[in-house]
Amino acid sequence: MSDELERDIDRLRKATARLEKPAPRAAVDEAIRRAARRPRRRLAPIATVAAGLALAALLVPQLLEHPSFTESEQAAREAPPVQTVAAPAPPRARALAGEERAARARAEDRLQHELRALANAERETWQRRLLELHEREPALADALLEAYRERFDEPDGFGWKELEQPPP
Amino acid sequence: MSMEQMSDEQLAGAYARGDADAFDALYARYRQPLFGWLKRSSGRSQEEVEEVFQDTWLKVIRGMERFDASQRFAPWLFRIARNCMIDRWRHLAAVNELQIADQDAVMNAADGDGNRPEARLHGEELAARWEAALAALPALQREALLLKLETDFDLDTLAATLGAPRETVKSRLRYAMQRLRARFEEIFNE
User: Fold this and answer.
1) Of residues A85, A70, A71, A22, the one with CA closest to residue B53
2) Residue B71 near chain A (CB below 8 Å)
3) Which residues of A12-32 are buried (b: 16+ CB within 10 A; e: fewer)?
4) ipTM of the predicted structure?
5) What is the extent of the structural domain holding B154?
6) Out of B40, B121, B180, whose CB is closest to A22?
7) Does one domain contain both B99 and B141?
8) A116-131 pLDDT, tens per residue?
9) To 10 degrees, what angle do helices B139-151 and B73-89 make?
10) Residue A111 vs residues A5, A34, B50, B57: alpha-carbon distances, Å
């Protein structure tokens, strides 16, 4: 980079250094720090992977020789080719497919929105929120729990199982 | 060695080995520069930027075990953030298009009294003019300039982070500075 450009950027940096700097809110900081402290799923130890590969190397040739495999391979060779090009859908069907895609996209947006709200909420708040949601929209609440477990790698570490018990 | 003395890469390695305090130290280092860059380069609302910011750190947390300690941490972090931003808002060009409608108003505000050469740069006036000048920059120039201001990466690192050739990034910086030079004569003519 030229010296002049560097010098100008440096002047700009100094001139704007005293301006207020955008920052995330405390709840976001807290949610991120909390996520960082959750136990993470460990990769399988190398010895386990190596044992799995060795077993596969032993079994695969035997499976390939097995009569059921060779028969199905022969049948597949003799079968007529599968038609893979679908006929163009009529306009009404295309419109329906478009609506379905839009509905799926809306549902996904809604799920992501709820997921973020859940991630930012305090424990008591999200438990209450999830229970309320479960009464109104059980399918969404189930999907939300599933997405939460997957996203935060939390099979049961933060107490969601309590929610699966019937209320007292 | 205390956490303050450890490099980013050493902290990342310590976190990958299970030291949660190392993450806090890394987060404290990059919380504001990353958020500032996302906020100002996207021009989006606080809530929207917080979502991208949070997604970025969750990806970092998940990816830390795969982080290659021979690479630098900061460009990796900003690359993840940029990908999250693009995923979220599809493409910076689209962000720019969305802002075009507001640009005339922004430019008019910036070219008012506050832009006279004799006007001094103080407090709120500077903040307003700075925001307006940034909003008027094309998205790719804005993102490159802000990344340089927040991180002071060298050109090669900027290029790797932004996924663009070195000379292209240099041109973006130069064009951005040309535009800003015209708006902030008092800074550059001192």
Assistant:
1) A22
2) no
3) beebbeeeeeebbeeebbebb
4) 0.77
5) 92-190
6) B40
7) yes
8) 776 666 555 666 777 7
9) 150
10) 46, 21, 17, 20
